Amino acid sequence: MELWYTEKQTPNYGITAKIKETLYTATTPFQELAVIDTVEFGRMLVLDGMVQTTIRDEFVYHEMIAHPALTAHPNPKKVAVIGGGDGGVIREVLKHPSVETAVLVEIDEEVIRASQKYLPEIAGALQDPRVEILVTDGIQHIRDTKDEYDVILVDSTEPVGAAVGLFSESFYANIYEALTADGILVAQTESPLFNQQLIQASFAGIQKSFPITRLYVATVFTYPSGLWSFTMGSKKVCPLEVEREDIPALDTKYYNRAVHYGAFQLPNFVKELVVP
Ligand code: SAM
């Protein structure tokens, strides 16, 4: 008998993956959590029925939410990842030698524990001495923080449950206050095909606080529609003004100098979402 996991990415469309084994399931105080081993993409973290990360394609998303901002910032020392309990974004942040402290602010401790046990390739960096783990609501943490972080990366679930507030204008305004004078925010802002209104609202919300706001994209194979967006808010530095020689050659599988610039070159149907 064959077992398949299907994620309905819209009420009328989805993806399906043949499963080798269900490794773990749990009902946490915040969501339904599962770790399944799939034939095509390897081990997969699923929250409330939605793919969060897979061994085979996680590098794209984790590299692309982290490196454009950490490269654009002149000297990122203290970085916060809001959400991100699988540890993948923290792993990429630590590839930048200037980073002294990487703070993970994850509301659900079970996600961290399950990722450390079943996805060590992704969560292993959480053991690094430069990492601080705060198990708390990212909304509250950012509200209580001022002039603290050089870069803040919002690696949240889709805007459901505890994550709804992570897409709000007030949250972005509080992030502005939590950032240092040349701070940079990057938020994952969903699919340019299926979530166009969310992208427009997030971009407008970030633009309300930040003088420089840029949308960029990457191909995340297991995310809804396969094309994914990120929105950057920057207090001082435009990511496209980074000199080519200042883009470090990092140990990456997707991000590189050309991709740093290319990601911001938007297809017309995406560009018209945010450029009047
Ligand atoms: N890369 C994935 C994506 O783009 O959908 C997200 C991965 S990560 C597992 C998302 C994490 O955000 C989850 O572990 C979830 O518990 C966490 N999260 C949701 N709302 C949160 C909040 N208000 N504060 C902190 N973490 C939150």
Structure in words:
The model has no long low-confidence stretch (mean pLDDT 97). The protein folds into two domains: 3-54, Spermidine synthase, tetramerisation domain (Spermidine Synthase, Chain: A, domain 2, Roll); 58-274, Vaccinia Virus protein VP39 (Rossmann fold). It contains nine helices and twelve strands. The longest helix is centred in the first third of the chain and has 15 residues, at 58-72. By secondary structure, it is of the alpha/beta class. It has helices at 58-72, 88-93, 109-118, 120-123, 138-143, 169-178, 196-209, 257-262, 268-274; strands at residues 4-10, 13-27, 32-38, 42-47, 50-54, 78-83, 101-106, 131-135, 149-155, 179-188, 212-219, 227-234. α6 packs across α7. The strands form two sheets. The chain has a seven-stranded mixed sheet. The structure holds S-adenosylmethionine. Residues 30, 47, 52-53, 61, 82-86, 105-108, 111, 137-139, 155-157, 162-163, 166, 188 line the site of S-adenosylmethionine. The site of S-adenosylmethionine has 25 residues, from β5, β6, β7 and α5.
